[in-house]
Design brief:
The chain has helices at 10-13, 20-48, 54-81, 98-102, 112-132, 140-163, 168-172, 180-187, 190-201, 209-237, 242-256, 264-285, 287-290, 298-316, 319-326, 337-342, 346-379, 388-393, 395-398, 424-434; strands at 84-86, 89-90, 412-414, 421-423. The protein is mainly alpha-helical and 441 residues long. The strands form two sheets. Strands 1-2 form a two-stranded antiparallel ribbon. Strands 3-4 form a two-stranded antiparallel sheet.
């Protein structure tokens, strides 16, 4: 038998507390959540925006993913899940410490390194979801500054308050299974749907019955929401819409995220109908909503739907299932209003609803205040919004590139920044030769 290096003894590589199954699932779940962003949301954004913004949409997402990962290991993780500094924030510290990363995570039977990765991709997708409301609007230089500032000043506070065991809302008993408040209220296709299995299925931090329920209920709610949206489109407009189907899918995923519980079909019907009404009917009637410049309709699909999910969680919560996730014996917490009315615990049910609303109000107020201050600060340094020329022309002015240019009109594209010219026919020929005469379509 080959002898292991002295610095990697068997008990150090596989300590007694390590559950290899849990660790494997958590790393898989983290990868699935990462795929939701890169390439999931990149593809979704690029396919839904105008051609002139395809590069900008992809670039905003790629940059955000990279910047968040660096900030997360630099200080973000410990501000979100580290030692308490105040009731709503942890002490900033570097996570890239060997002893820290190889130790057991604060929840689960796997290394802290796995937890850092899992929570890191959650932070990444939050910023990329925010990008969806700013595509083709925000100055890219402003976005470069916005990402680390918002992660530091807003996301970490919400994450610590709700998800960290020492957070004040966590101690109060707010239920946010996998980020309905922290991610979707804060932020405002197929890869996105399947990747959500890691989103909700990884939240229990174990290969458990709770994880199985979460994954199943996620898909049930999403399918119900999608079908509800399609039926409403067909009934009121006469034609089912693929974009409508995508929106119904997203609202189902977002709504079930705080709960991932038994009422999946009911939550799917609500998430497929209420946001449909606000987006397709109410948006055109209310002047205030018409003033909102939101190209991906995140105010409906994420902010509103995340709010619905959090409130419905307080209504449908079943104490037994909540205790499986939170691993506490407290019978006075996590009692949904429907359960309370049915079992003579009405006051406890109303209390849980109040806690859910309090958590919602905290996240909304936090993000309105911090985001406004961050934007005010950035505006003092660089313009927040693109210039009129950039808004008119798009990627070619902003990035010196144009999506699908090699195969577009005229078959030629000139880079406006370095005056280089590429010919689609020559590029195809040269590339096919260099790849061993593999023909490019």
């Amino acid at each position: 038998m080959e002898q292991l290096p002295k610095n990697l003894l068997p008990d150090e590589a596989s300590p007694e507390w390590l559950n290899k199954g849990d660790n494997a699932w958590q790393l898989t779940a983290a990868t699935l959540v990462g795929l939701q962003s890169i390439p999931g949301l990149v593809i979704l954004y690029g396919s839904m925006v105008k051609k002139k913004w395809a590069i900008n949409a992809a670039f905003m997402a790629f940059y955000a993913f990279a910047m968040v990962i660096v900030c997360w290991v630099g200080w973000g993780f410990r501000m979100s899940f580290g030692d308490k500094l105040v009731a709503f924030l942890g002490k900033p510290a570097v996570a890239l410490d060997e002893k820290f990363l190889l130790g057991q995570a604060f929840l689960g039977y796997f290394p802290t390194a796995t937890m850092v990765l899992f929570q890191g991709v959650f932070a990444c997708i939050t910023l990329i979801l925010i990008a969806g409301a700013l595509l083709g609007r925000m100055n890219f230089r402003a976005w470069i500054l916005f990402v680390p500032l918002w992660l530091t000043c807003s996301y970490t506070i919400a994450a610590f308050s709700i998800w960290c065991p020492d957070g004040w809302l966590a101690k109060l008993g707010v239920i946010d299974f996998a980020g309905g408040y922290v991610i979707h209220v804060s932020s405002g296709a197929g890869l996105l749907w399947m990747g959500w299995s890691g989103f909700n299925g990884g939240a229990p931090f174990a290969v458990s019955a709770d994880a199985s329920l979460a994954v199943l209920n996620t898909h049930v709610c999403t399918a119900t929401s999608l079908l509800t949206w399609l039926l409403l489109d067909y009934f009121f407009f006469g034609k089912p819409s693929v974009i409508g189907a995508v929106q119904g899918m997203i609202t189902g995923l977002v709504c079930i995220t705080p709960a991932a519980g038994w009422a999946a079909i009911l939550m799917g019907i609500i998430s497929g109908s209420v946001p449909w009404y606000t987006m397709m009917v109410l948006h055109n009637k209310l002047k205030l909503l018409r003033l909102v410049d939101d190209p991906m309709a995140l105010i409906h699909t994420h902010a509103l739907t995340g709010t619905l999910g959090g409130i419905l969680t307080g209504f449908f919560a079943v104490p037994k299932l909540c205790r499986l996730f939170y691993m506490v014996p407290d019978w006075e917490k996590y009692i949904g209003l429907a359960y309370g009315l049915q079992n003579g615990r009405t006051s406890a049910g109303f209390k849980q609803m109040g806690i859910q609303v309090a958590g919602l109000a905290f996240v909304i107020c936090l993000n309105i205040s911090t985001t406004s201050l961050i934007c005010w600060l950035i505006r003092a340094i660089v313009p927040l919004r693109m210039t009129d020329e950039e808004l008119q022309i798009g990627d070619e002015v902003v990035h010196g590139e144009e999506a699908f240019a090699l195969f577009g009109d005229g078959m030629r594209f000139q880079n406006s920044k370095n005056n280089s010219i590429y010919d689609a026919d020559e590029f195809s020929y040269a590339t096919s030769r260099s790849l061993g005469d593999v023909q490019m379509v």
